[in-house]
Amino acid sequence: MKYFDDYEGMHYEGNCIRPPSEADSILLQVTLGCSHNKCTFCGTYKNKRFTIKDDEIILKDILFASRCMKNQGRVFLMDGDALIIPHKKILWILDRIREHLPWVRRVGAYANTKSINMKSPEELAELREKGLGIIFLGVETGDDETRRKVRKGSDSIHCIEMGKKVKAAGIKLSVTVLLGIAGVERSLDHARLTGELLTRMNPEFIGALTVMLIPGTELWEEFRKGEFNLPDEEGLLKELRDMILHTNITRGLFFSNHASNYLPVKARLPMGKQDALNLIDSALRGEIGLKPEWMRAL
Ligand code: SF4
Q: Whose CA is nearest to atom 5 of ligand 1?
């Protein structure tokens, strides 16, 4: 009889994050850290050296989930950039998920432009076939000046192409954009250019987060030295308004209900655009209360 190390549980290492929409998913850590790990605002994986975890540990976690997580219908592959895993190995992971967790309906993962670029359209389609149903991509901004400054690692044109490549493979695309990332000076350029990027990329889901200044990051240092100024609440609301105004996708959900935001907005685009703009205008006129600072702590 095979002995299962039930007491071991899942083999999580270090800081683990997942998108809010994956809160109820089986969180399967297949990599440690992020293969890029250079964005000046991001402190999530600063202390982790990027590694792809061993097959043995990944399989142990899948087997643990097969015994203890029978009610969770989705799997999310952590950490920062699971798509960077060589194609054969991701196929192996997806096959093991199908074999041992047959009730799982969808697998999701974070990706960046580099890891999407490394997969051919055929490989992405094969991953879709094997269950990879959604990719989460940190777009942050469509403003190339800001992308360079925060060391995003690609320009907006490449970012649009990579988003389209994911969609062409039949994989759903969920992107995040960062309010405040361009500072006060470029706030409205960032809003307009990001709206234009989103229009061209046309993702199914757009989540707007507010940039948080994390001690130890380069952005924090810039802020400390007075080289970076975060827009105030009103500035952030105006930025959100302009971003939504310039976002013309065919069909999708734009939401800013992340804990970091001052005003939760959830709009089905394109139909819900005017309602979202009206809501932000009401907040700008002071008719709707904003989230207090203490509630924004993550
Ligand atoms: S690509 Fe994402 S996880 Fe990696 S450093 Fe940038 S923001 Fe952080």
A: 37
